[in-house]
Every structure is written in structure tokens, then in C-alpha cells.
């Protein structure tokens, strides 16, 4: 086989892979802006890559490694990053509508000002992550690790934080209306000036949590341990709904809402876009005979 023939065979083999996978296999750390990824690239190694502005549409990157990658402004619509390693990745200003990051490692990642409506972060590791100004309304963070994460000024309406471990995190000035914090650990968390109206805090712990100037209109605090919370005022507890299992700081009292049932309807996020159609099979010309 001539050298030219071998080169054509290699090009054909790369072209047959899913879009974007061939680029992932190159040794060059710099990837062109606006590159698009589709198809499957499970367990791909893309750590340290420059992927700012990239599009992941309907792609499967399960178990892929993108440690420290530059993903600013990237789009992850309808794509799966389950168990992927995105630790220390910069994903600020990105869009993750309907994407799956369940069980992914996002420790120390930057998702500042990202849009993640309807995304799945269940059991993900987001410890130390920068999630300030994140818009993740309707997303799932159940059983996620959010220790020491920063979620200040985020839009988290209707988000599921049930059984999450958010010890030491900051939710300052965050919109948590109708969010589900049931059974979670929120010790030493800052909820200062946060909106917790109609949120579910049942059975969660808040030792050392700061509630100064937080709103708690019809907040369900049944069974919640607020006995060592800081900054709570009687007026906040008067707005909330407690039960016999609620624990509050000494000198304060909690009351039930008289059997009122609060029904919260959160508008579902828009459906993710359909994945693009696969490209036509490439055509190659055989080299002319000598």
C-alpha cells in the first residue's frame, strides 16, 4: 500500500466517526471556535481543551474527561455528560437546557451566569463550584454534593435539592421560590436576603445557617431543625408553616398554617432541541494509477 493510499484510508476512518469525535482524538489542544459535537463520544479525553463556544447537540459524552477545559459560552442542549469529569472546567455563560450531568464531577468548576433550565445534576459533585447568577429553574440537584459552592444571586425556582449536601454553601440573594430542600444538609449556609417563599424545608438541617432578611412566606418548615440557625426573626416564622417536629431557636415560636395546603405550579422548561441529522457519508476519490 502506497503512502498516499494509507493516508486516504485514515481520513475515511476518521470521517466515519461521529461528528466531533475525530477532532477529540487529535493531539492539538486548541479546537476551533464554533465546533459542533454530535453522536457518541463516551469516555473521550478532552481535558484542557479550548472549546469555548462549542455546541454539544444531542451528544453522548458519558464518562468523558474534560478536566480544566475552556467551555465558556458552550451549548449542551439535550446532551448526556453522565459521570463525566468536568472538574475545574470553565463553563461560564454556557447553556445546558435539558442536559444530563448526573453523577458528574464538577468540583471547582465555573458555571457563572450559565443557563441550565431543566438540567439533571442528581448525585453530581459540585463542591467548591462557582454557580453565581446561574439560572437553573426546574433543574434536579437531588443528592448532589454542593459543599462550599457559591450560588449567590442564582435563579433556582422549583429546583430539587432534596437530600443534597450543601454545607458551607452560599445562597445569598438567591431566588429559591418553591424549591425542594427536603432532607438536605444546609449547615453553615448563607440564605441572607434569599427568597424561600413556598419552599420545602421539611426534615432538613440548618445548624449555623444565616437567614437574615430572607423571605419565608408559606415556607414548609415541618420537621426542620432550625434550632441553631442564625438571624431568624419571629416575623419570618409567623409567615412559615411548621408542625410538631419543627425546632426553632430559643425565644421564638413556630406555628402551623391551619391546614392550608399550598399548591405550587412551576412552569416546565422547554423541551431540548432534536439532535441534528447525521451528515451524509463522505466520498473519496481513489488516487490515479501511475
Task: Please give a quick description of this structure.
With 290 residues, the protein is largely without helices or strands. It has helices spanning 3-15, 21-24, 234-239, and strands spanning 36-37, 55-56.
Describe the structure.
- The chain is largely without helices or strands.
- The protein has a domain at 116-272: Pectate Lyase C-like (3 Solenoid).
- It is 8% helix and 1% strand.
- It is built from three helices and two strands, in the order H-H-E-E-H.
- It has helices spanning 3-15, 21-24, 234-239, and strands at 36-37, 55-56.
- A two-stranded parallel sheet has the order 1-2.
- The protein is elongated, with a radius of gyration of 23 Å.
- The protein starts with a helix and ends in a 51-residue tail after the last helix.
- Residues 1-33, 259-269 and 278-288 have low confidence and may be disordered.
SSE blueprint and pairings:
Layout: H1 3-15, H2 21-24, E1 36-37, E2 55-56, H3 234-239
Parallel strand pairs: 1-2
Supply the key terms.
290 residues, little secondary structure, Pectate Lyase C-like, two-stranded parallel ribbon, disordered N terminus, disordered C terminus
Helix-residue proportion = under 10%
In terms of per-residue confidence, which ranges show pLDDT below 50 for 5 or more consecutive residues? 1-33, 259-269, 278-288
The CATH architecture of the domain at 116-272 comes to 3 Solenoid
* Computed Rg: 23 Å
Give, in order, the helices and strands: HHEEH
Beta strand %: under 5%
Largest sheet: 2 strands, parallel
Shape: elongated
Spatial strand arrangement across the major sheet:
1-2
Structural class call reads little secondary structure
